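Appendix C. Worked example: DUF2064 domain-containing protein
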Amino acid sequence: MTLSISLHLLASAPQAGNFHPRLVPELGEEGVDRLHRQLVARVLNLPPLGFSERIFWIEDGPDEALEALAEDNDWMVVGQPVGDLGERMRRIAALGLSENDAVVLIGQYCPTLDADYLSAACEALDHHHAVLGPTEDGRYMLLGLRLVDPRLFEAIPWGSDQVLAMTCERLQELEWRHGLLPSLWVLDSPEHLPRLGRMGIKLGVA
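Step 2, the predicted output written as structure tokens:
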């Protein structure tokens, strides 16, 4: 059976200094905003890959340029629901699962997220209830689900290095089969900027 899977990008509109303020001393506020926009645009430009729908959940919007890019690439643009990160993810997952067999939720901060990685997540959902895309710092940047339960998102210290471990514990408690994709890195400190250069991403260039 081929699953009907919807893809959901949770991202914020560029606003001076709000995207990792630790990068401001290195790039300046305008440079940080441009980098933020580059990372969001990079995801919006990924190929469709057969997803039943692709939804760009924007926070702190609107942003005309990003919304236009999303619409040009056949993404639906919607404002994020209220609540902390866990509650927003739960609500988005529940909405996606009301019309699809599975959902994949991703963020904007992983420059190495590509079509092959998303395809691997979809393949994993063929035989798992959940799939996680771990990050090097103990979090995750992708969550694929065929079921949703509030316990998966409650009382998680979002932003800490305990997110992945606690989420896996919850999945075990729920007795859901889950898979882990290879770990990727997320951009959240000046020490990560040289990695962007090695990828050929020109910092702050629109």
